[in-house]
Design brief:
CATH architecture: Roll
Largest sheet: 6 strands, antiparallel
CATH topology: Thiol Ester Dehydrase, Chain A
Shape: elongated
CATH class: Alpha Beta
Structural class: alpha+beta
Distance between the termini: 21 Å
Helix content: 25-40%
CATH superfamily: Hotdog Thioesterase
Oligomer: single chain
Number of helices: 6
Order of helices and strands: EHEEHHHHHEEEEE
Number of domains: 1
Number of strands: 8
Strand content: 35-45%
Length: 154
């Protein structure tokens, strides 16, 4: 269940420039990393070969795929906010995406959401939601992404 309910487009627009909330922690276990590798076919050793990653990786062990981190955005965002008073919303894509730090296997990760902009588009609006992913005990973000969400109707 979302922590914040945004009642319609005007309330969404009023939140531009503000952080909306922070998700719960999510453990990025080696099983989660392996399941992502299996689903995508990305079996690079730095993600899935625990012994080799401990011996050869500059990170001291396996790390999550950057795209795994990014793919957690939607489920974690649903914990933070929902927009009511609209007919629906769609993931329209991403603007800038960066992975400034690794996510070691076993890390706890969460995301902060801020509404960066809301612009009119045919049939509704497009919100840019800056997602800042962080790990417990980390010193800098592990991912910063501009999620583009379109809301229509209402």
């Amino acid at each position: 269940m979302a922590q914040v309910t945004i009642n319609g487009i005007e309330e969404l627009k009023a939140l531009v420039g503000q952080e909306v909330g922070v998700s719960d922690w999510f453990e990025v276990s080696q099983d989660v990393i392996q399941a992502f590798a299996d689903a995508t076919g990305d079996q690079q050793w730095i993600h899935v070969d625990v012994d080799r990653a401990k011996a050869e990786s500059p990170f001291g062990g396996p790390i999550a795929h950057g795209l795994l981190t990014l793919s957690l955005g939607p489920v974690l965002m649903f914990q933070i906010f929902e927009v009511t008073g609209v007919a629906g919303g769609l993931n329209y894509g991403y603007g800038k995406v960066r992975f400034p730090a690794p996510v070691p296997s076993g890390s706890k990760l969460r995301v902060r959401a801020a509404i960066s902009s809301v612009e009119e588009v045919p049939g509704g609006v497009q919100a840019t939601v800056t997602q800042t992913f962080e790990i417990d005990g980390g010193t800098k973000p592990v991912c910063v992404a501009e999620a583009l969400v379109r809301f229509f109707g209402g």
